[in-house]
Structures are given as C-alpha cells and as structure tokens.
Amino acid sequence: MSRSDQSAFHPVPDGTTALRARLDDLRALIPELPALGGSENDAGALCLGLLDLLERKQRHLIQDNVRLVALRELTENLLRDPEEERVLRTVSLYLQQAHGLTEVMVLARAEAGGLRGYRARSGVSGICEAVRWSGETVRGTAWETALGGESVYHASEEERPAGTPIPLPVILPIRCTDAERGTEGSPAQDQQGSRTTGLLAIRPNDRTGAGSDPLEVEQLAFQVATLLESVRHQQRKIRDRRFRECLMEAMEDGLVAVDGAGTITAANRAALGLLGVETTSLVGRPLATLNDRSSMLVEVCKRCLEERAPRRHQEIWIGAPRRGIPVNLSVIPLDDDLEDAGGIVATFSDLRPLRAMEEELRRLDRLAALGRFATAVAHEIRNPLAAIGAGVDFLASDLSNEKQSDLKLLRSEIARLDRIVADLLEPARTQPLELRTVTAQKLVQRACQTVEPLARDRNVRFDVRPPAEETFRSTTLDVDPNRMLQVLVNLIRNAVEASPPGQAIEIGWERSRGGGEPLKRVWVRDHGPGIPEKELEHLFEPFFSTKAGGTGLGLYVSNGVVEQHGGRLRVEAAPGGGTRASIDLPGGPR
Fold it and tell me: What CATH architecture is 436-586?
C-alpha cells in the first residue's frame, strides 16, 4: 500500500485540530481554560485568554507562596508558646485575613462532645469572638455531624433545631492521626483511622469567591489539622520535660546526666548541693569539670561511658577522701533507642545521715550496756551503803561532841554517794509522766529560787528574759512539773558554777519552729569559758563531766527526762562566748 493510500485511512491532523485536542485535555484540569474557535479572531482571543489565565495563576501562585511563608512563621511562633486558647484564636484570625474569608471558626472538641474555640469575621479586624458550646447544645445539628467525621457543605440555617448555633455553609472535621489516637477517653476513630479533634467552619466570600473551591477548603482543613497536631505534640513535649524536671527536683538523691560526648546535660538540686556548684556553671560543661569536686565520681562515670556497663552501689567521696562527703553512687548507661543514646545517668545519695545513725546506734548500745552495768552496781552499793550509814548513826551516840564534826563529814559523803546511786537508777525507772499545764514563767521562778543560795554564794545574779508577747499571753508548757523542774535546776546550777563572779545568768523562753513544727523553748545561757567543741558531743554520756568533782550524771539524767517528754535537750557554744542550753518541747502556740 502506498503512502498516499495510508494517509487516506489515517489522516494527519492539522495544527489547529491538535491544539484543540490538547486544550480539551487541559480543560479537565483547568475548567476556566478558553475554547478555540475556527477563525483567526478566535485564535487571537484564545491567546489573550491564555495570557490572562497565566497571569491569574501567577498571582495565585505568589499569593499561595506568601501564605505558606506566613503559615510557617505562624507555626514557629505558636510552637514557642503552644497554649491552646492562643493557638485557636490566632489561627482563626490568620485564616480569615490571609484567605479573605467572610467568617471563620476554628473549634476544638471539649468535654462531653462540646466545642470551644474562636470566630473571626471580616470587618472586625484583629478581634475574635470566643465560642463555648456544650454537647447538648450541638446535638442533632450539622456541628455534631461534622464531629462524627463527615464534611458538611451547604449547611442550611433553617434546618437547625431551635436554640442551637447557626451553622456556617462549610463545616469540615479536623482529623488528628498522631500517637494520641486510641487512648482512653479519646474520640472514636472514623473510617480513615483518624479521630476528629475539632472543626473548621467557613463562610465563603461571595464577592471574591474565596472559600468556594472545595479542594482549597479541604487543603485549609488539612493545614489546620497539621498545625494543631504540631502544637499538641509540642505541648506533650513541654509537659514531659516539666514532669521530668519536677521528678528530678523532687528526688532526695543527687542526679547528673551525661551525654555520649561526656557533656553534662542535666543536674538536679540535690546534686548541685552535694557538689557545691550552680546549674549555670555545670550544665553544658564537660564531665571533667567535676574533677576538682570529686575525681572518684568522674572516674566511675567515664568508665561506664566507655564500657557501657552499669556501676551500682559504689561508695565514693565528694571532696577529699575520708574528709569530704561520703555518697553511694550508681551509674547506668542509657538505652540506644533513647534521645541521649550513648549517655549515662549517675545517682548518688548522701551517706552522712546513715553514718550518723550508725554512730548513734553504737553510742546507744554502749550506753545501754553501761546503764545495765551501772544499775547492777548501784543496787550492790546501796545495800552496804545503808548499813554503813546506820553504823555511823549508832556510833554517834557514844562519841563526844568534839568527834561529832568528823561524823558530820562522814555523813555528807555517805549522802553524796547515795545521790550518785539515785542518779544511776533514775534512767532505769519507767515512771509515767504526770503531765500538767504550767506557765513557763512559774517554772523558771521556782528553779531560780531553788538555786538562789548557790548563786548568792558565788556572786552571780539571774537575768530573766520573757518574750515580748508575754505581757498579753503567758506561755504554757504541758509537762511533768517536778521532773522538768529537776532538769531546769540542773541547767541553772551548771550555769552558775561555770560563771565568773559578778556575771549574770540569762534565762528565757520563746515560741519557735524546729524543722517546720511549732515548739516551745526554754533556754539558759552563761558567760563562762564555754565548753570545747570536742567535748560537746560527750556531754550526755554518763560519768562524763567538765567540772572537777562532777559525777557526769546530771545532764545524762536531764536528757532522759526531756526525751521522755518528746523534746530535745541541746547544749552549744553561745555567740560571743559562754554556753547556751536549750530545752525544746513540742507544742502549738498556746
């Protein structure tokens, strides 16, 4: 078959026919594309139409680019402060102004199927109206339909039930597909596997046609959903970070986190206190920064970083070994799938309270053994001592008056031994307290009267200092008056014996707080030479005394009486010299 015959069966289209076919294909994508007629004028009109269309598309493209830049900046700004109310308001304003819509509402799902958000309208620049609707209010309306995941177009105001919010012509669900879906209490998933977390409602602009294109409106809903999802993700990150920070600060143990490069990334307040540093001088610094505080800590952490093996319950020192702070250290590597993969977390607890408790237990064990021994010895001594006293009294009847003075000295020594034995037996007695309410002033006055003869002999006076509010309200104490008087007399007698002639013994009481708990304090202060610091910790041990000829049982017995009242007896160096003894008793502000 010749070429001419083939042409007869398959005619080659001319240029106009091919152009018309291409235009018909493009019109399926761009409906506003003009048609091509058969004349030259029609071809010119087509060119003008195409140029006009290209110009409009170029303007739309520039406008879309401006909107995208504005949306990106808006998103970055909202993520810095992702407060949901602010986000809903700002997005409503942005959509209305950037897209030239007549009315926009961005609503988030509230409790029990309700809605809350903001409405922005043209002609009201920069102002949003808050929207709060309950689940009962939107029930049976287009709003509820959209909450169920179905887009609503051409909603009619006449179809709404009486008393319900007026629907906007277009209501689209805002769907979230993040990790929150499927959690307890979250909205049910729709057919796309996402969940409706809010609604975007718009009223198109009849003058400009903005918002009338369904494809454009769907794209707006997708942008809003993406933005809100990013904001919620940022909110979760902030909540998680704050929770971790609160958790770290609530820990009593020190915690230091180090990344894989050996840089300190976090440290809680307990760690800073033990290490004696500040956050600003620690976080972001190399681990080696802590070498001057604890080389042992740095060494264990580096070994864990290198070997990726945990180090648990190692006792190290912060500061100089044997002279610094003993701590119990544990270091664990972080899992590879965590954000700080390759890093470690070190926790360390202060062992000083435990060491003090162990020392106190050892001291109590020694005192208990000594008490049992002293009680046994006291019982053995008292019987022959009573016989000696009776024998002295029998011999006194046959001696002359000149010899009676010698017997007087003997009787005084027997009486002194009897007092020592009584003091030894006092802590072993388990007599219940006979609590009564007495005023602090009366108790101090009785104690001063008891010690007055000794004070007069040593030329020492009493300076009683009641609190300023004592004029209006007396401070009362719930104590066993006789036994607490015994303690106070002992403290005042010690102060008198320690004071040089001409000095005053200061005695007072006050309401105070100890460890946050209200307490009442009675204190005695002298201006003597004071007690060496190394001897203060032994004051409450039996038979330890700083006075020549003292038995060392006065403070031992007094401490037991105060502890039986639930209080604490303290003896410490006073500012400016001398010694201050304080009786701290629990109690409210009475």
Answer: 2-Layer Sandwich (3.30)
